[in-house]
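Shipment paperwork, digital attachment
Item: protein structure file
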Amino acid sequence: MTPGKRNTRFAREPGPEKERPGCFKKRVLAGFLSAVWTAAALFAVCAVPGAARAETVDRIIAVVNSDVIMLSELEEILKPVYAKVEKSSYSEGEKAEARAKLRENVLQELVERKLADQEIKRLGVKVEEAEVDAAIERTKTERGWSQEDLQKALAAEGLDVAGMRGQMKEQMLRAKLVQLAVSSRIVVTDEDVARYIQEHSGEQPGDKTYHLHNLVMTVPGGSGAKEKELVRGRLERIRERVNAGEPFPEVQARLSVAGLQDGGGDLGPFEAGELTSSLQEVVKDLAPGKCGPVMEAEGGYQIIWLESVKAAEGAPPPAEAKDNAEREVYKEIVNKRYAEWLEGLKKRAYIRIMR
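Attachment content:
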């Protein structure tokens, strides 16, 4: 998986609007695959390896140099993802297409993960526990969280501190691998920066920044109008409770523990121009701490909660603009070089997929 890309968890709205690249731009089925693939990637980090499944006879499904990938590894990741596919309102043909694409994507991700792990071992890349501790403390400081706040936020995502530590350690190992294999050889020239500034000269600064969360409930495929209205009504009651003063994070955490929500979470900050026109209409007059109306989402409904609004800022001074451009150019080059480096590993490796 190419580093540096931002994961998003917006449930897409139906309709052909022009949407934010990476979040709202793809067509319905592709957008759904992207959303469940994000969940699959997260589950791959947090899943407990070797979980028993009596109904499956385990076998090797891929060989990557001296390592193997077992069917159980693949199924452990795909099981909750397939469940989301089954709950969707897609036709059986679309569901079959989604399952096939997801299986191929997850398997390729596992192959790339094995290759990266082999390089980490070969190069002796290590991350000390003190480095993980420091990264966690930085996260808490940036968000203004206490240890209790951190644990509550993790619980809302179905994680604990140990799971987060494992996830952060893996991310840090991969970041160090990228630095060794790719980043240390990159030089950003003045010509690169000038080109980037020229290409982005038409972008308009000054949008307000909205920090958004969402809560998603799906409607099982084949449901009638009555079942859909029940789901919509459940979200409407949650919205009313939050707008009456009940804290949204606490409501979401309870629903998550009880298994009563099908997705959503902290979506992060978005400038107004990054949102679809319908979402812009929802947030433009929404007060922080309040929920917008129930909206249709792929396979169900969602509500949007506004955590905060940051006032618009003017264009940065020239020196800051140049620094920003240099960082963006650097990320673009790293992403491209990493993808090329990974393809090189694949070509040199012995990879056999058992169909």
